[in-house]
Amino acid sequence: MHVVACQYNFICTRNDQDVSELKTKLGHVIVMLLLIGFFDKCKKAVVHSTQDLLCFSASVLLSSSCLFLLSKLNGST
């Protein structure tokens, strides 16, 4: 077990960082599975009006922006 200096001048072990990275990667996998299910359901959606199209486009924009923010948060750590 290696002791390394972490952010904010705390001392932590390498194992703590490995567990944190594993939690982050597991969270990404869960989000990706949810998005795959969402887009699978979107293929079956029927658009009858402009309001349906607006709601559909807003949901795609919101889900893609959440995925983008998640990737940016992971890159900053």
Automatic annotation (TrEMBL):
Record-linked Pfam families: UPF0114
Name this polypeptide is given: Membrane protein
InterPro entries linked to this entry: UPF0114
Organism (species): Gossypium australe
Superkingdom assignment: Eukaryota
